Amino acid sequence: MDLIKERIYYTIGEVSTILNLNASTIRYWEKKFDLIKISKRNGASKRKYELKDIQVLFRIKTLLKDENNSIKKAKELMLNWKPSDDFETFKKAVEKSNQPEIKISKENFQKIKNIIADIRKLLKK
Fold this sequence. Notes:
Layout: E1 10-11, H1 12-19, H2 23-32, E2 40-41, E3 47-49, H3 51-66, H4 71-78, H5 87-97, H6 106-124
Antiparallel strand pairs: 1-3, 2-3
Helix pairs in contact: 3-4
């Protein structure tokens, strides 16, 4: 499913889905990080984000959730950071980050391999 499509504005719900974050987390980060500037609000006071806003949020998500930095440290790391103009690279990074990471021990991996080998033997009979 193509979650992110290049266009002018995105709603907070769309951003939430794209980045796999709660809308409340996005609103909280808006208060903590000066780099997040809501691009536009329509008459109903709905937030509208541009692609560069989503890139900022994605970078913050990476710093806080993936790299386990504090908000203070993330702010420092964001000082000289700039959003990219390369939409396709950004899109691939978001898609990759949304894929679940499977962690398995060597011992469990070997057990799984043995089970698969046993199943293959049974299927050949």
